[in-house]
DNA sequence: GTCTATAATTTGATAGAC
DNA sequence: GTCTATCAAATTATAGAC
């Protein structure tokens, strides 16, 4: 990491530092001084590259949100069979979050802070994600009798909840279950297979 | 609400106002002026009753955290049979959160901000919650062959995730599924029955 | 206990030298 | 492009009158 810092442009150093500070402290908690220190420069340079705190934050946030959301939609609206689709979603999502564990908390936290602004910025008004295709697919399987009767909306919520929640609630979980970093990570890795398995058991006939 | 404000003591008015502001904006985003305005008093009085912002926040936070956590432990360590225990947990938790929808986001958000400080304050070092009893109970059922083979830790995570996550991710969910307030609330109410049902289907033999 | 006025501090932002 | 020094605004906290 430190090796590469020399090669990084100042702008890249700032963005990396801002990412780190914003994702741990949030927009309100983050201090420009913290970011400058983390980047090994001074505050004035932050304003030289990015006009103000808001602009810097927005750059970081949109960048991160793009990692978090678009994958959901591309998988859910693909042409895969239901079970494979669920499996792929869980796998790819957990993998992504294992690499960026701060991501879900950061994104959800900032969306909560100002839902309209950010949801709009991420998708725009016409570019809404369409889980409807996935919901219809589930509905079709139910009517075909391939899987048990279940509300597609609830099944969708079950899947997303089991996948994402442990990452958001990490401090609660590690404390309650007395887990160290390694144990927690191992459990998350296990969930890649455990969640699809659990769902299949619940809805297969 | 406004009727009672006359009867409320100033301290109660402050706490109610602080609760409202802190739970929506968080510790960093909250302004003492906002709280004073919300309480219908001036800033100086806030400091008269609570030395500083940190003390006021801590009072509110610990009060709220006590609503959120202890119930988990009391239910999980009770003597109920497994299925009833799961059902009771989901019911009571969703009911609690339907009344205080901001609760899970607020508590988890502030714990993420400073895990050590708050986790310690909530339980202390010796007073750790003991989901172990619940985990053992699940393990026993598995070994008896009453339910399918499943890791107790994962089952625990499944239950908690499905129950709490939708409350934390409300803005994401309502936007993605195009739900209005009422529809969202109805779905949450449905989950009281849906989650236990789903779990039973997954683990019953 | 409650208020107004003000101090003290924090922090985002800019000016200007190099 | 980068730095030091400084300003301006926002925000917490206190002094002191009533």
Features:
mainly alpha; homodimer; Arc Repressor Mutant, subunit A; 2 domains; 205 residues; Tetracycline Repressor, domain 2
Q: What would you note in describing this structure?
A:
- The structure is a homodimer of 205-residue chains.
- Chain A folds into 2 domains: 56 residues, Arc Repressor Mutant, subunit A, CATH 1.10.10.60; 135 residues, Tetracycline Repressor, domain 2.
- In chain A, 79% of the residues lie in helices and 0% in strands.
- The first copy, chain A, is built from 13 helices and no strands.
- The longest helix of chain A is centred in the last third of the chain and has 23 residues.
- The first copy, chain A, is elongated, with a radius of gyration of 20 Å.
- Chain A starts with a helix and ends with a helix.
- The mean pLDDT of chain A is 92.
- The interface between A and B is large, with 49 and 51 residues.
- Chain A binds a DNA duplex (18 and 18 nucleotides) through helix 4.
Secondary-structure topology with pairs:
Two copies of one chain form a homodimer.
Chain A (H helix, E strand, L loop, with lengths): L1 H6 L2 H20 L2 H8 L3 H7 L3 H16 L1 H7 L5 H18 L3 H11 L1 H9 L8 H13 L7 H17 L1 H7 L4 H23 L2
Helix pairs in contact in A: 2-3, 2-5, 2-8, 5-8, 6-7, 7-11, 7-13, 8-9, 11-13
Chain A binds a DNA duplex (18 and 18 nucleotides) through helix 4.
